[in-house]
């Protein structure tokens, strides 16, 4: 059974990591997907690799854009609607995380992180909601990729964790604001997932073993671990779920001590 057959989705930051895994699974489940990626040569190559992986190219389009700029979300939504006529699912996933010491962190890094992770998410979600509200009462599903970091502190992430708490809060507030249009808004909170954002940090074998030891399921997360929960929230199986936060962390949060 294809859980997303006929649905139209758009995903930001979708050619690597969690966004890519969700894209691949959405298409497997029958959706058509418009993917946003950063407008540079490296990301373009990554998009072309994604195209090769997807067997049905008619179900995928790429829309380059810097998500920190409000027009990028509008462009992504507009291209999806131009291609397929509507938007049913929107996943706000794009984000950056560069570890840095709080006392010496430069304003440029703080502003860049907030601009991409939080401001960018706000305007992209707004663009999706503007389209979905026109489709009322069918509405749609908006999913914000937050993080376990929204719930706990991180010494090297003082600029990052507030943005992820902001994503969770954004999904709560948009759930209240958009429910009358039939739009559901929920957050996924990944735990420690191996992605390009933390590969360098987890290259330390001792640190990796320490992290695995804190996780009840005994392993770090994979990007594909987020795909199933993202399908659930996008599908008609979750039509009465909105304003929720779903931890996808192997049990890490309940085992923190």
Defining key terms:
seven-stranded parallel beta sheet; oxidoreductase; quinone binding; 257 residues; rhamnose metabolism; globular; NADP
Structure description:
The N and C termini lie far apart (41 Å). 40% of the residues lie in helices and 14% in strands. It is globular, with a radius of gyration of 17 Å. Helix 4 (107-134) links the parallel strand 4 and strand 5 (140-145). By secondary structure, it is of the alpha/beta class. The chain has a 7-stranded parallel sheet, sandwiched between helices. The mean pLDDT is 95. One of its GO terms (biological process) is rhamnose catabolic process. GO terms for molecular function: oxidoreductase activity, acting on the CH-OH group of donors, NAD or NADP as acceptor; quinone binding. Keywords: NADP, Oxidoreductase, Rhamnose metabolism. Belongs to the short-chain dehydrogenases/reductases (SDR) family.
Instruction: Give me the Rg, rounded.
Output: 17 Å
N-to-C terminal Cα separation, in Å?
Answer: 41 Å
Q: Kindly state the mean pLDDT as a whole number?
A: 95
The helix/strand series, from N terminus to C terminus, equals EHEHEHEHEHEHHE
Question: Which sheet architecture does the biggest sheet show?
Answer: 7 strands, parallel
As laid out across the biggest beta sheet, the strand order is: 3-2-1-4-5-6-7
Shape: globular
Beta-strand segment tally: 7
Helix content: 40-55%
Percent strand: 5-15%
Class by helix and strand content? alpha/beta
User: Which regions contain 5 or more consecutive residues with pLDDT less than 50?
Assistant: none
- How many helices in DSSP terms? 7
GO molecular function: oxidoreductase activity, acting on the CH-OH group of donors, NAD or NADP as acceptor; quinone binding
Pfam families: adh_short_C2 (PF13561)
Family: Belongs to the short-chain dehydrogenases/reductases (SDR) family.
Keywords: NADP, Oxidoreductase, Rhamnose metabolism
């Amino acid at each position: 059974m294809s859980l997303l057959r006929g649905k139209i989705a758009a995903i930001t930051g979708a050619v690597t990591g969690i966004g890519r895994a969700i894209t691949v699974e959405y298409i497997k489940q029958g959706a058509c997907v418009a993917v946003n990626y950063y407008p540079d040569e490296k990301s373009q190559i990554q998009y072309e690799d994604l195209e090769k992986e997807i067997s049905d190219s008619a179900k995928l389009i790429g829309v380059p854009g810097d998500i920190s700029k409000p027009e990028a979300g509008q462009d992504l939504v507009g291209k999806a609607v131009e291609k397929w006529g509507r938007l049913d699912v929107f996943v706000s996933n794009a984000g950056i995380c560069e570890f840095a010491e709080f006392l010496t962190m430069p304003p440029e890094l703080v502003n860049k992180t907030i601009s991409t992770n939080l401001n960018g998410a706000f305007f992209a979600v707004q663009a999706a909601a503007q389209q979905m509200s026109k489709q009322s009462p069918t509405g749609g599903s908006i999913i914000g990729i937050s993080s376990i970091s929204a719930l706990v502190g991180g010494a090297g992430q003082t600029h990052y964790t507030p943005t992820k708490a902001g994503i969770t809060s954004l999904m709560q507030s948009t759930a209240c604001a958009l429910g009358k249009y039939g739009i559901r808004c929920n957050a996924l909170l990944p735990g420690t997932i191996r992605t390009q954002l933390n590969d360098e940090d987890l290259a330390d074998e001792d640190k990796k073993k320490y992290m695995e030891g804190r996780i009840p399921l005994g392993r770090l997360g994979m990007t594909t671990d987020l795909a199933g929960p993202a399908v659930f929230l996008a599908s008609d199986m979750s039509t009465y779920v909105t304003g929720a936060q779903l931890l996808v962390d192997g049990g890490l949060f309940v085992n923190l001590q």
